[in-house]
Design goal:
This protein is mainly alpha-helical and 70 residues long. It has one domain. Helix content is 60%, strand content 0%. It has helices spanning 9-18, 24-44, 59-69.
């Protein structure tokens, strides 16, 4: 979980501190980013450069392709 932005899981964790409510969008964007975080941490062994593409039906395969290529 090295890349927590305010649209994904970072926004979900910060919402209580900021006094706002988390959105269902935070969870959806956070779950998309988990496949990229998995490739970066466990396959590449670093924070990495692999990102995620929201809206693609084959998001995990896209990340796997770029994780293998790097």
């Amino acid at each position: 979980m090295g890349n927590l932005d305010h649209f994904g899981l970072g926004g979900m964790m910060q919402s209580r501190i900021k006094g706002s409510r988390s959105s269902s969008k935070n969870l959806a964007f956070g779950l998309i980013g988990m496949s990229a975080d998995f490739i970066n941490a466990y396959i590449l062994g670093n924070v990495g450069r692999t990102g995620h593409a929201a809206g693609a039906c084959a998001t995990f395969l896209f990340n796997l392709h770029w994780g293998k290529k790097l």
